[in-house]
Every structure is written in C-alpha cells, then in structure tokens.
Amino acid sequence: MDTYALLLAATLNAGTVLAIAGLGLLVNERAGIVNLGAEGMMLVAAIAGFATGVHTGSDWLAFGAGALAGATMAAAFGVLVIWLNTNQYATGLALSLFGSGFSAFVGIRYTQERLGTRPHFAIPGLSDIPFFGPALFRQHPMVYLTILFTLGLAWFLYRSRAGLVLRAVGESPESAHALGYPVRRIRLLAVTCGGALCGVAGAYISVVYTPLWVEGMVAGKGWIALALTTFATWRPSRVLLGAYLFGGVTMLQFHLQGEGVAISSQLLTMLPYLATIVVLVLISRNPVWIRTNMPASLGKPFFPGR
Questions:
Q1: Distance between CA atoms of 145 and 42, rounded to whole angstroms?
Q2: What does pTM read for this prediction?
Q3: What domains sit in the chain, N to C, each tagged with a CATH number?
Q4: Would you put residue 219 in left (φ > 0), alpha (ψ -120 to 50) or beta?
Q5: Which candidate among 122, 131, 176, 231 keeps its CA 20 to 30 Å from the CA of 165?
Q6: Where in the cell is it found (predicted)?
Q7: Helix, strand, or coil here: 129?
C-alpha cells in the first residue's frame, strides 16, 4: 500500500507541471492564439527559477522569476503575431528553438549547482492518515494551488464578464471589435498570462519536481501540455484531469522499472508520448466534436479595420 501511495503522490506531482502549463495554453487558445513555444518558455523559466532558487533559497521567488521569464517571452511572441502579423505556428516553433538554445547557454554554470535543503510539507492531522496521508496531504502547496486555480479559471471563463469577452474574442474577433473591445490588447494580455503560467510550470520542474538543472530537462512536457488542451476540449477541469492521467502514465514507467518488469527502459520512457499520440488519434476520429468545442478563430490572424 505504501508503494501505491507514493505512486499516487508522484502522479499528482508530475501532473501539476502539465496542468499549470496546459491551463496557460488554454488561456492563449481561448483568445484565438496558438503558441507552440511552450517548450522553450518552460526551459527558460526552468533555468530562471533554478538560478533564483540557488541565490535566494526561496521557492516562491523562483516561481516569480519563472513567471516573469515566461511572460516576457510570450509577450515578445504576442507582439510578433498580433501586431506584426507573423505566422503563429512558425513563430511559436522559433520561440521553442530559441528557448532551448538560450536556456542551455545560460544554464552552463548551474549544472553543478544544488538547491538548499528542501522543506517537507504536510497538512497537520491529515498527513498521518494511512495511505491517503502520504498520497494526498504531503504535497508542495503549489499542487493544491493548481487545483484551486483550475476552479477559479473555470469560474472566470464561464461566469464572469471578462471571461465572456475573452471567449468572444476567441470565437469572433471581428464581432468583438465591432462592439468596441480592444481585440489585440486582449489577445496580448491572454498570451502574456498564458506564458507566465508556462513559466511557473517550468520553474516548478527545476525547483520542486527534480530539483536540479539539466539541459533540456523539460523533455517534451511543453508539447504534451499543448496536446492536453485539445484532449480536454479547451475546458479547465478536463485539463486538470488529463494532466493527472498523463502524469500517472509518466510515473508508471518508473514504477514498472522499480518493480523489475522485463520491458525495455526505452519503451517505458516512450509511454507518455505514446499515450499522447493515441489520445489525439482517438479524438481526431470525431472532427465534428472538435469543431464544436474549439474556439472558432483559433490560429487565425485578425486585422482591425479591414
């Protein structure tokens, strides 16, 4: 039972990374912008967060540095695609490649660094419950904040006026512009906020999830988070559930290796990505369902006054 409790705890930990990044990308896409640069933003945020953690010893300052790094890169992306009308897909790929190279260059001096003594978190009383205590109530506070943020984002999108405006911009920017809403500024704000969330996810990897800095340590999680938004049909609650599903698959490979299962380690490492491909294939079999849930202007440029 202790083994399964630790597996569940590791699933929540791994899923939190995907959930934070996936929610950030969902905000982008609800405004009609596709950002393929999540991997690069998370890598730059990971080194920014790790470096801040090394020098300050504070997880929260590290998360702030990661959010700032992600927001800065996303804002640059937003200016290019929203004001200069560059191709969203090509610009996102360029951002991802830039982030990969820049983080590797900046992170050279931090490959041998170590964070200070890591704190142990536990909710008094609940953490001592057999099985459920170690599995659910000894997590980093960011795990619980992610769940609360998911609920808050769902309320924002479907119960608030600002959320309605954001979704309107994603569905029909021409109509929103005709009603007097500053479509491009709203899109830039959404992209920047989404980048900040991807930055927090990147910092969480290097500060909590590992915690260390290794070149390329995001290891495809940005791409999985991007696929997660489609898997979740652009709904926050489904992003969270999907993140835990993929997190569980990721942790299962380590559990099977620890149990000595006679399967190639390379094949086990492929499990999260195979699961992503299988899910996308299954979803793609029903294009009507995707079109019904997908923001109508997703990936389409908007030119006011034309």
A1: 19
A2: 0.92
A3: 2-293 (1.10.3470)
A4: left
A5: 231
A6: Cell membrane
A7: coil
